[in-house]
Design a protein that fits this description.
Blueprint: H1 6-19, H2 24-27, H3 29-41, E1 46-49, E2 52-54, E3 62-68, E4 77-83, E5 91-100, H4 104-131, H5 141-164, E6 175-184, E7 187-193, E8 197-203, E9 209-213, H6 223-231, E10 235-238, E11 246-249, E12 256-258, E13 264-265, E14 279-284, E15 291-295, H7 297-300, H8 305-313, H9 321-336, E16 345-351
Antiparallel strand pairs: 1-4, 2-3, 3-16, 4-5, 5-6, 6-7, 6-13, 7-14, 8-9, 8-15, 10-11, 11-12, 15-16
Helix pairs in contact: 3-4, 4-5, 8-9
Length: 376
């Protein structure tokens, strides 16, 4: 059980002790445990927002993040890297968010800021609730998967509901995608809402680096997405000047024309099939797996999975891998999509093994907008 976080084991010991004297579910002590744990989170946060790299001393993780805005306007992409997530040495949270619409940058930042804390609280509460059952098994991979899936589902529902009632953000015609990952020991859990993508870099049997796509791009053209959306009276079709680019439209209006089938916000079409339910994926990390790339569609529009993995793998400094991938994608927009305005481009690369060439606490930070950059 060494791959489980110290919080997981410490919580288990606390619960085991408490169960001898009290019924947690009956007396509500489980929630008290959760509250106490949540307070500890605030004491030891290591969060990086915007662009840069982070590597905590002694950590096996190194995360590289970089974002580049389009030629005009504000960057509606944003990222977050939270090392020692939940004050646990073996946990890290990374997220990448792609806003759209007039208020898209505000929506993206709101979801970025609220999602990790909400997820952490829901994970802690779900863990406490699960642990009170007599058949709870700390070593069960299936149980671990169910806990994180349940936590992510609760979190995404709560975040979307809170956003809808936000007093200062108008998300009726604006929204954001969200692709996040939690590494807990030798396990990674991903949740995807929208059309960003996660790709794993791992060597094949002959030593060549190969790309394994972990998430699905939730585009309106997917048969399973289009089918139930049509059942809700929403329309999915391509414009004449955008052949092959399917969008979601209102039943009787040529609006809003969303190029994804899942997002936070965009309440104008939430009654017509658009959802914020995440695809939750679990993968056990092997000793061969090297890194996972999280990137917005601005990258994948011009870079293949295989190209992305090779670009990262050949980067001599891990901390600069995300920047190299983003710059490569920007060059791809100039060459492959001439005359088309470049999309915002953002990427996070989470390495599972830090190389000796990467120095701890050495940051290359390039602000992607007017927002202040956190330094450590």
């Amino acid at each position: 059980m060494g791959h489980f976080s110290s919080m997981f084991n410490g919580l288990a010991r606390s619960i085991s002790s408490m169960k001898k004297t009290k019924n947690l579910k009956k007396n509500g002590d489980g929630k008290e445990v959760v509250k106490a744990m949540a307070k500890e989170v605030k004491k030891n946060e290591l969060i990086l927002r915007s662009s840069g790299t982070v590597n905590v001393d002694g950590s096996n993780n190194l995360a590289s993040a970089y974002s580049k805005r389009e030629e005009k306007g504000v960057n509606q992409d944003c990222c977050i890297v939270w090392e020692e997530f939940g004050c646990q040495e073996d946990m890290i949270f990374c997220g990448i968010f792609d806003g759209h619409g007039q208020w898209g940058h505000f929506v993206a930042k709101n979801v970025r800021d609220s999602m990790p804390l909400s997820l952490l609280c829901n994970w802690q509460e779900t863990l406490v609730e699960a642990a009170v059952h007599p058949d709870f098994d700390l070593g069960s991979q299936k149980k671990l998967q169910n806990i994180w899936k349940h936590s992510y589902l609760k979190t995404c529902e709560a975040v979307d509901q809170e956003l809808e009632h936000h007093r200062k953000i108008d998300a009726f015609n604006s929204g954001t995608t969200a692709l996040t990952i939690v590494r807990q020991g030798e396990n990674v859990f991903l949740a995807n809402v929208g059309d960003s993508r996660a790709v794993l870099g791992t060597p094949s049997d002959n030593g060549d680096m190969v790309a394994v796509q972990l998430t699905m791009d939730f585009k309106p053209s997917l048969p399973q997405e289009a089918e139930w959306r049509t059942q809700c009276n929403g329309r999915v079709y391509s414009l004449d000047d955008e052949p092959g680019v399917h969008r979601v439209w209102l039943p009787h209006e040529d609006s809003p024309g969303l190029a994804m089938s899942r997002s936070f916000g965009d309440y104008c079409v939430k009654d017509f099939g658009l959802i914020s339910v995440p695809q939750v994926i679990h993968r056990h990390i092997t000793s061969k797996d090297q890194f996972v790339v999280l990137a917005t569609d601005g990258v994948w529009d011009v870079v293949t999975n295989e190209e992305a993995v090779q670009i990262v793998w050949e980067c001599p400094v891990q901390g600069k891998a995300a920047k190299r991938l983003v710059e490569w994608a920007a060059d791809g927009w100039r060459k492959k999509r001439r005359g088309i305005a470049m999309d915002d481009i953002s990427a996070i690369v989470l390495f599972f093994h830090s190389s000796s060439s990467s120095s701890s606490h050495q940051f290359e930070l390039v602000p992607s907008s007017s927002e202040s950059v956190l330094r450590y």
